Amino acid sequence: MENPLIQLANVNKWYNQFHVLRDIDLEVRRGERIVVCGPSGSGKSTMIRCINGLEAYEQGTITVAGERVDQDDDNIEKIRQRVGMVFQSFNLFPHLSILDNLTLGPIKLKRVPRAAAEARAMELLERVHIGHQALKFPNQLSGGQQQRVAIARALAMEPDVMLFDEPTSALDPEMVKEVLDVMIELAGTGMTMICVTHEMGFARAVADRVVFMADGAIAEVGTPDSFFSAPRTERARQFIQQVI
Ligand code: ADP
Ligand code: MG
């Protein structure tokens, strides 16, 4: 069988005395879509931030496309090019146009010629239905539009996998759908995705597996159907009642 694109093996992490990730084992195949959910403070953000080297971990191993994720600068650079990340707070560069937000990484980090980077950026902006806004600045766009730009910006680096950390939880309700729709379209392209989200409809529509975290550990893994309809642990049952 093909090696997993992402592998976390026995990962443990502490914030000082606080054991934030406990014996995390997770393998993600290329093209697979994982939804990560669980109560606030259960370690979801920490886990996905470890995958692209935004956080260090003390024990275990994480590999992306066979490359071990550690805190060595060259390594981090390589990993970040392979792993796109979308945050809750869009994190666009406020002083750059939408187009320049997309081309900065490819031009600076991948040495793509400007014309080619701009052509690709426009394709991606069309794909997230925002091509006509290319010359605006982030603060001229709605939250939902900014988040779609953030997705396009991550895709501009041609990543192997996209990580999403509660991408819709800072949005006004009427903008949630436009972002989820873009994520569903992205799933349709075969992109490998790990999404921290409590959007059950999204999970049911695209997830191959749901990973439920509690107290820094993976407490359950299942298909969306089995997880949401027949959770095995009391923690998961309680959690599902709250998000429904
Ligand atoms: P989640 O994303 O599931 O809400 P997080 O991964 O953000 O959880 O946080 C897990 C736990 O680690 C929480 O108890 C949080 O307070 C703690 N934590 C997160 N970041 C830090 C940090 N930089 N220093 C100390 N504790 C942290
Ligand atoms: Mg979080």
Automatic annotation (TrEMBL):
GO molecular function: ABC-type amino acid transporter activity; ATP binding; ATP hydrolysis activity
Keyword Nucleotide-binding attached: yes
SUPFAM superfamilies listed in its UniProt record: P-loop containing nucleoside triphosphate hydrolases
Record-linked InterPro entries: AAA+_ATPase (IPR003593), ABC_ATPase_HisP-typ (IPR030679), ABC_transporter-like_ATP-bd (IPR003439), ABC_transporter-like_CS (IPR017871), MetN_ABC_transporter-like (IPR050086), P-loop_NTPase (IPR027417)
Transmembrane segments: none
Domain (ABC transporter) ranges: 6-240
This protein's record includes keyword RNA-binding: no
Keywords: ATP-binding, Nucleotide-binding, Transport
Matching PANTHER family: AMINO ACID IMPORT ATP-BINDING PROTEIN, PHOSPHONATES IMPORT ATP-BINDING PROTEIN PHNC
The family this protein is said to belong to: Belongs to the ABC transporter superfamily.
Protein name: General L-amino acid transport system ATP-binding protein
